C-alpha cells in the first residue's frame, strides 16, 4: 500500500498537491503564509515574478472548467512559467488514447508540472503515481474527492477576515455528497484547528457517516446550522441534481437551503459568506446576499491566484530561492 | 458426473502416497497414513491391497494430504477475453494451487447460455487436463435478464448449476419464473446478492471511507434487499439458491435465519472478504476494487463467524484475472476483481492460524462444502472416489510477486506479502498434474 503522505518528498517538502489529507497544520500554515507574499504581485505594474522561469506547466483538464483553469494559468504565468492548456475531454481520449499515453506524450515534451482536473475520484493520485519522477502533480479537482487549492484559498480568505482558526464556527451548506470542495474544506478546517465545523444539507445530499468520517456535525435545518456561525460557505448545486431522486425542484431547495439575509440573521453579525462559484442566484443564495456586505466571493477569486502561485512554486521547489512570507515580491 | 481423467489420458496409472497426514473431512479421517490410487480413483487407505505395485510412490512425510480443492467461482476468461487469461493459463494456476475442480461463471463471450459454449469450455479443459472445469450455465439468454436460457439442455451439456455471474436479474417476475423453471430440473441457481439499482455507479462500500475519498458507494442495503427478495422467491418457488459471495453481517444473518426455517438456500464467502476491509482502500489501491465491495470490520468479523458456524459452507477464490491495462486507469474506471487462485491455500491456512477454523474445517470448506453446493460426489477420499488430491506443506513460506503468481493475472492486494503454505503435488484423476519443481523426489 502506498504511503498516504506520498505528496511529500523524502525531505517532507511538498512534491505533489493532491489532497489535504495527511498534511499537518504546520504545512498548511506555511502555504497560507507563503501565499501572503504573492498578493502584492497583482498590484505591480508588471505582474510577474521570475520564480518558475523556464519551467513548463501543463493544465490537463479532462473536465471543462474555464474559471479554475484560468486562475491556474494566470498563477503559472505570474510565476514566469510556460503554460500549456490541454482540453483533453475533447481531444485525445476521444481518439482512444489512454490517460497514460497522454501523460507519456506530455512528459516527452519535458513538462515539469501537471495541473489535473478529472471527473473521477482518485484520478490525480493515479496520475501522480504514474508520472515520471521529476514531474509534480497538482489536483485541480478529481470527481467528488478533493479540490485542495480551492480549500486553501478559502482558508486564506477566512484567515484574512477572522485571523485565528481556533475559535471559529464554520458552516458548509449544500451538496456535500458530490462536493470535492466540501471534502477538502472539512479536512483543511479540522487540520487548522477549527473546533466547530458543520455541514448542512438534506439527507439525500449528505455522505453516509459524514460525522465519523470528518469529525464534523451534520444539520438538516439551515437556520439551526448557521446559528452563531462566523463563516458560511455555500456550495454550488448542479442542475442535474434537480428533478431527480435527490431533489424535487430548485424552488423547494431554495425555500429550505437557499441563503437569504433573513436566514443569515442567526449567524454572527460579522459572519462572512463564501461560495466557490459560479453562483446559481436564487438557488443557493439570493443576490442580496451574494452582492451584500458580508459576501467575500470575489475576494476568493483574487486570493485563488496567490494561493495557487504559492502551491505551484512550492511543488516546483522554487520556494527555496527566496525566503518565504516576507512580502518581498511587493513592488 | 466426475470424468475419468486417467482413461482420458489413455492409460491406467497407480500411485501410493506414503507417510502424509491424511485429512478427509467427509470421512473424519485425520491421521498419518498411506493412500493408494488406481485407475483414477481411490483404491485404499492405510495398508495397500495385497499385490498392489504402484507405478509411482510419493513420500508425503511432513506434508498434508487432502482432497483437491473445489472453487465455486473462478473466471478463466475463455472464450472471449483471452487478453486477460485462458483456460490453459488459469487451470495451470489452479493445479499449482491444489485446486482440482473449478466452476466458471457464464460471463464469457459468447455467454455460456448454449450447450455448444458449455461443451467448448469443458472440452478445452479436458484436453489440457490440468483441472476439472464445470461451467455454470446462464440463467437467462445472453445474461440479459429477460428470457430464460435452455436450462435442461445446459444441464445435459454438463452445467451443474446456473448463474447470472455478476448481472442479477432486475425484474422480480423474471427472477421468479427463472427460479421456478430451474426448480423443475432440480438445478441450483447461484445468485450475486446485489441489487442493481442500489449499487448502480458504486465501486466501494458506502460508509466512512467512501465519504472521505468521495467514491460512489454501494450501501449495505444493496445486499440485504437482494437477499430478502431472493429468499422470498426461493421460499415461494422451492428453488435451491446459493448466494455467491456474501459481504455483509446482515445479509449473512438473513440467510442463517432462512436456513433455520428450512429454506433451501446456501452461501459462500470470497476469501479476501475475510481479511480486508474498506480501510484497505486508502490511497485508491485498484487491487482493492472488488465487487461486492470490501466492507467494515464488523462485517468481516460476522463473515468469519458465519464461516465457522457453517452458515456459510464454502470458501471461494472469486478469481478474476485481468490484464495490466484493466487497472491502469483512475480507481472508479478500473475493472473490479483480483487474481486469487494462487493465494487460496495460504489464506485459508491463515484463517486456521487466526483461530477462525481448525485445519480440517478449513479443508472442509474448500472441498466437501463446495461439492455439496454443486451437488457433486467430489471433495472426499473414500475408496472409489475420484483420486483428486492436494498435497501441501503447511509451513513452507513464499512471497507473492508477479513472478511467483502462476495465474496470468497479477493483480492482488496481497502482492509483496509473505504467505505460509504451499502446494507440493496436485493429483487429478490419480495423475500428477502439478509437482513443485523444488520438491525433492521422495
Global geometry of chain A: globular
Q: How would a textbook summarize the main sheet of chain B?
A: 8 strands, mixed
Number of strands of chain A: 9
Tell me the name of the CATH class of the largest domain in chain B: Alpha Beta
Strand-and-helix sequence of chain A, N→C? HEHEHEHEHEHEHEHEHEHH
**Which strand order does the major sheet of chain A show?**
7-6-5-8-9
CATH class of the largest domain in chain A: Alpha Beta
Structural class of chain A comes to alpha/beta
Number of domains of chain A: 2
Q: Percent range for helical residues of chain B?
A: 25-40%
Average pLDDT rating of chain B: 95
Classify the beta-strand content of chain B into a percent band: 15-25%
Strand content of chain A: 5-15%
Rg on CA atoms of chain A, Å = 20 Å
Kindly report the CATH topology of the largest domain in chain B: TIM Barrel
CATH architecture of the largest domain in chain A, by name, is 3-Layer(aba) Sandwich
- Given as residue ranges, the uncertain stretches of chain B (5+ residues, pLDDT < 50) are 6-10
Per CATH, the superfamily of the largest domain in chain B is Metal-dependent hydrolases
Q: What is the count of helical runs of chain B?
A: 12
Describe the model:
The complex is a heterodimer of chains A (331) and B (442). Chain A has 331 residues and is α/β, with parallel strands linked by helices. Chain A has 11 helices and 9 strands. Chain A has helices at 25-39, 66-78, 99-107, 123-130, 148-162, 180-191, 210-214, 222-225, 250-257, 287-290, 297-315; strands at 56-61, 82-87, 113-118, 136-142, 169-173, 196-200, 217-219, 231-234, 272-274. Mean pLDDT of chain A is 91; it is low at 322-331. The two termini of chain B are 33 Å apart. By secondary structure, chain B is α/β, with parallel strands linked by helices. In chain B, helix 5 crosses helix 7 (220-237) and helix 7 packs parallel to helix 8. Chain B is globular. Chain B folds into 2 domains: 5-66 and 385-435, Urease, subunit C, domain 1 (Roll), CATH 2.30.40; 68-374, TIM Barrel (Alpha-Beta Barrel). The longest helix of chain B has 18 residues, at 220-237. Chain B has 12 helices and 19 strands. In chain B, 60% of the residues are buried. In chain B, strands 1, 2, 3, 4, 5, 17, 18 and 19 form an 8-stranded mixed beta sheet that branches. Chain B has a 6-stranded parallel beta sheet with strand order 9-10-11-14-15-16, with helices on both faces. In chain B, strand 1 (14-24) and strand 2 (29-38) form a beta hairpin. Chain A binds chain B through residues 1-4, 6, 21, 98-100, 118, 120-123, 125-126, 130, 142-146, 180, 183, 207-210, 212-214, and chain B through 206-217, 219, 280, 282-285, 325, 328-333.
Amino acid at each position: 500500500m502506498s504511503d498516504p503522505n506520498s505528496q511529500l518528498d523524502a525531505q517532507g517538502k511538498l512534491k505533489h498537491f493532491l489532497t489535504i489529507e495527511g498534511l499537518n497544520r504546520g504545512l498548511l500554515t506555511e502555504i497560507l503564509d507563503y501565499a501572503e507574499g504573492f498578493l502584492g504581485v497583482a498590484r505591480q505594474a508588471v505582474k510577474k515574478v521570475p520564480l518558475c522561469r523556464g519551467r513548463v506547466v501543463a493544465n490537463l483538464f479532462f473536465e471543462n472548467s474555464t474559471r479554475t483553469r484560468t486562475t491556474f494559468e494566470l498563477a503559472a504565468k505570474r510565476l514566469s512559467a510556460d503554460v500549456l492548456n490541454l482540453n483533453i475531454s475533447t481531444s485525445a481520449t476521444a481518439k482512444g488514447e489512454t490517460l497514460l499515453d497522454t501523460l507519456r506524450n506530455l512528459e516527452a515534451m519535458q513538462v515539469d508540472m501537471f495541473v489535473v482536473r478529472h471527473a473521477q475520484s482518485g484520478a490525480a493520485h493515479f496520475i501522480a503515481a504514474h508520472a515520471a519522477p521529476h514531474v509534480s502533480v497538482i489536483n485541480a479537482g478529481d470527481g467528488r474527492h478533493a479540490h485542495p487549492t480551492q480549500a486553501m484559498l478559502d482558508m486564506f480568505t477566512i484567515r484574512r477576515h477572522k485571523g485565528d482558526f481556533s475559535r471559529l464556527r464554520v458552516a458548509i451548506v449544500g451538496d456535500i455528497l458530490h462536493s470535492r470542495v466540501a471534502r477538502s474544506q472539512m479536512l483543511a478546517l479540522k487540520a487548522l484547528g477549527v473546533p466547530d465545523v458543520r455541514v448542512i444539507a438534506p439527507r439525500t445530499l449528505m455522505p453516509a457517516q459524514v460525522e465519523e468520517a470528518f469529525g464534523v456535525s451534520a444539520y438538516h435545518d439551515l437556520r439551526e446550522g448557521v446559528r452563531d456561525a462566523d463563516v458560511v460557505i455555500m456550495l454550488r448545486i448542479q442542475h442535474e441534481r434537480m428533478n431527480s431522486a435527490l431533489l424535487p425542484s430548485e424552488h423547494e431547495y431554495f425555500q429550505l437551503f437557499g441563503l437569504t439575509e433573513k436566514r443569515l440573521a442567526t449567524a454572527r453579525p460579522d459572519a462572512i459568506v463564501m461560495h466557490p462559484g459560479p453562483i446559481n442566484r436564487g438557488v443557493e443564495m439570493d443576490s442580496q446576499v451574494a452582492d451584500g456586505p458580508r459576501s467575500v466571493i470575489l475576494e476568493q477569486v483574487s486570493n485563488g491566484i496567490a494561493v495557487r502561485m504559492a502551491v505551484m512554486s512550492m511543488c516546483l521547489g522554487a520556494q527555496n530561492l527566496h525566503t518565504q512570507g516576507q512580502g518581498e515580491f511587493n513592488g | 458426473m466426475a470424468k475419468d481423467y486417467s482413461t482420458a489420458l489413455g492409460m491406467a496409472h497407480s500411485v501410493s502416497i506414503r507417510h502424509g497426514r491424511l485429512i478427509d473431512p467427509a470421512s473424519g479421517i485425520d491421521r498419518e497414513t498411506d493412500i493408494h490410487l488406481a485407475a483414477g480413483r481411490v483404491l485404499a487407505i492405510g495398508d495397500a491391497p495385497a499385490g498392489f505395485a504402484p507405478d509411482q510412490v510419493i513420500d508425503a512425510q511432513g506434508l498434508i494430504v487432502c482432497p483437491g480443492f473445489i472453487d465455486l467461482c473462478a473466471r478463466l476468461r475463455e472464450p472471449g477475453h483471452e487478453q486477460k487469461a485462458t483456460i490453459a493459463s488459469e487451470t495451470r494456476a489452479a493445479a499449482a494451487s491444489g485446486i482440482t475442480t473449478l466452476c466458471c461463471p457464464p460471463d464469457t463471450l459468447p455467454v455460456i447460455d448454449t450447450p455448444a459454449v458449455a461443451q467448448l469450455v469443458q472440452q478445452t479443459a479436458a484436453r489440457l487436463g490440468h483441472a476439472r472445469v464445470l461451467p455454470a450455465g446462464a440463467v437467462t439468454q445472453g445474461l440479459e435478464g429477460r428470457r430464460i436460457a435452455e436450462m435442461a439442455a445446459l444441464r445435459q451439456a454438463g452445467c451443474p448449476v446456473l448463474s447470472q455471474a455478476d448481472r442479477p436479474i432486475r425484474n422480480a417476475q423474471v427472477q421468479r419464473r427463472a427460479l421456478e423453471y430451474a426448480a423443475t430440473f432440480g438445478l441450483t441457481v447461484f445468485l450475486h446478492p446485489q441489487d442493481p439499482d442500489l449499487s448502480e455507479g458504486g465501486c466501494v462500500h458506502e460508509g466512512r471511507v467512501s465519504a472521505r475519498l468521495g467514491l460512489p458507494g454501494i450501501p449495505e442495503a444493496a445486499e440485504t434487499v437482494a437477499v430478502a427478495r431472493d429468499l422470498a422467491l426461493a421460499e415461494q418457488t422451492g428453488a435451491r439458491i446459493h448466494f455467491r459471495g456474501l459481504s455483509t453481517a446482515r445479509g449473512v444473518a438473513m440467510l442463517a435465519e432462512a436456513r433455520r426455517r428450512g429454506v433451501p438456500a446456501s452461501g459462500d464467502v470470497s476469501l479476501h472478504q475475510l481479511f480486508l476491509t474498506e480501510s484497505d482502500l486508502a490511497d485508491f489501491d485498484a487491487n482493492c476494487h472488488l465487487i461486492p465491495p470490501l466492507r467494515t470490520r464488523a462485517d468481516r468479523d460476522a463473515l468469519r463467524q458465519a464461516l465457522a458456524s457453517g452458515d456459510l459452507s464454502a470458501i471461494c477464490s472469486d478469481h478474476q484475472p485481468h490484464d495490466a491495462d484493466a487497472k491502469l486507469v483512475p480507481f472508479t474506471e478500473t475493472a473490479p476483481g483480483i487474481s486469487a487462485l494462487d493465494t487460496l491455500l495460504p489464506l485459508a491456512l491463515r484463517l486456521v492460524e487466526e483461530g477462525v477454523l481448525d485445519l480440517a474445517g478449513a479443508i472442509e470448506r474448500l472441498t466437501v462444502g463446495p461439492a455439496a453446493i454443486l451437488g457433486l460426489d467430489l471433495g472426499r477420499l473414500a475408496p472409489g472416489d475420484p483420486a483428486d488430491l492436494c498435497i501441501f506443506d503447511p509451513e513452507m513460506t513464499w512471497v507473492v510477486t508477479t513472478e511467483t503468481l502462476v495465474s496470468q493475472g497479477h493483480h492482488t492486494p496481497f502482492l509483496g506479502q509473505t504467505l505460509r503454505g504451499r502446494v507440493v503435488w496436485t493429483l487429478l484423476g490419480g495423475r500428477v498434474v502439478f509437482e513443485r519443481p523444488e520438491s525433492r523426489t521422495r
